[in-house]
C-alpha cells in the first residue's frame, strides 16, 4: 500500500498483521528485552519487514539496531525508515547514493485526542484543517497532520542529529495527496557527519488514506533537487 506514495527507487515491505515466521537477530533480542508480548511481536514483524525491503536492494540480512534517540541503524550505504500502528507495519529503504533520508509514518484513521491535537498543531495548521474538513469530512485531518509531523522528524533527525519539535514544522496538507513541511528553524546545519551542507528549508511529501489507515512519506533525494518529495 505505502509503495503508492513512494518512488520506485525506494524498496518497501509491509504487513497487516504480525508474521509467525518473523524472528529477531542477535542484538535485536536485547532491544526487545522486557517488551510485553504484543509489543515484541510488533517490533519483530517491523524488523522482518526491514530485512525484506533490504533484500530487494541486494543487502544481506542484518540486525536493525537503534542509535541516538532510537533512530534505526541501517547497513552501510543505505537509508530507511520504519513505522507501525494497529494493523500495519512497514519499512522503506533505499541506496544512499540515490536517497539521503526517508521518513514514513502510519496511523489509524481516527481522531486525535483534543489535548494532543492542541499540543502539536500550529494555528495556521488548524485553520487549514478546518477548510480541508469541509471538503472531505470523512478524513481525520488532525491525525493525518500528526502522521506528517512524525514523517518530518524521521526525515530530519538522520540528516542533522538535531531535535525538531512539533511546533518547528508548519505543514500544509493538500487535497491532491501531497503536503509541504516548512521547517521553522533558523539553523538547519547538521551537527554530526554531514550528508548535506544544510537541510532544505522545506520537505515535500505525500499522503494516503486507505483501508482505515493514514500513511505519510517523505524522501530527500541525493542530488541537486534535494527538496523534492516522494514520488517525484
From TrEMBL:
Keyword list, A-Z: Transferase
The record's annotation in InterPro entries points to:
4-PPantetheinyl_Trfase_dom, 4-PPantetheinyl_Trfase_dom_sf, 4PPT_N, Enbac_synth_compD-like
All copies of the 4'-phosphopantetheinyl transferase N-terminal domain together span 28-94
Start and end residues of each 4'-phosphopantetheinyl transferase domain? 101-184
Q: Would you indicate the residue range of the signal peptide?
A: none
Any GO molecular function? transferase activity
Superkingdom as given in the UniProt entry: Bacteria
Q: Does the keyword NAD apply?
A: no
Q: Which PANTHER family match?
A: ENTEROBACTIN SYNTHASE COMPONENT D (PTHR38096:SF1)
- Protein name (record): 4'-phosphopantetheinyl transferase
Q: Which organism is it from?
A: Streptomyces pulveraceus
Q: What is the lineage of its organism?
A: Bacteria, Bacillati, Actinomycetota, Actinomycetes, Kitasatosporales
Amino acid at each position: 500500500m505505502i509503495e503508492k506514495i513512494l518512488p520506485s527507487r525506494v524498496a518497501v515491505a509491509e504487513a497487516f498483521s504480525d508474521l509467525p515466521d518473523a524472528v529477531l537477530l542477535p542484538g535485536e533480542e536485547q532491544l526487545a528485552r522486557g517488551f510485553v508480548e504484543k509489543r515484541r511481536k510488533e517490533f519483530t514483524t517491523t524488523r522482518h519487514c526491514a530485512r525484506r525491503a533490504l533484500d530487494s536492494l541486494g543487502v544481506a540480512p542484518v540486525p536493525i539496531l537503534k542509535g541516538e534517540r532510537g533512530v534505526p541503524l541501517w547497513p552501510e550505504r543505505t537509508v530507511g525508515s520504519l513505522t507501525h500502528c494497529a494493523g500495519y507495519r512497514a519499512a522503506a529503504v533505499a541506496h544512499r547514493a540515490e536517497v539521503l533520508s526517508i521518513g514514513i509514518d502510519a496511523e489509524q484513521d481516527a481522531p486525535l485526542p483534543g489535548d494532543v491535537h492542541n499540543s502539536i498543531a500550529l494555528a495556521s495548521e488548524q485553520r487549514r484543517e478546518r477548510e480541508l474538513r469541509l471538503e472531505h469530512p470523512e478524513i481525520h485531518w488532525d491525525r493525518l497532520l500528526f502522521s506528517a509531523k512524525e514523517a518530518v522528524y524521521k526525515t530530519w533527525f538522520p540528516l542533522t542529529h538535531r531535535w525538531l519539535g512539533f511546533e518547528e514544522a508548519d505543514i500544509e496538507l493538500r487535497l491532491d495527496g501531497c503536503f509541504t513541511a516548512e521547517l521553522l528553524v533558523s539553523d538547519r546545519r547538521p551537527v554530526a557527519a554531514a550528508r548535506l551542507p544544510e537541510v532544505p528549508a522545506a520537505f515535500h511529501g505525500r499522503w494516503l488514506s486507505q483501508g482505515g489507515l493514514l500513511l505519510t512519506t517523505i524522501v530527500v533525494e541525493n542530488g541537486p533537487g534535494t527538496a523534492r518529495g516522494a514520488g517525484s
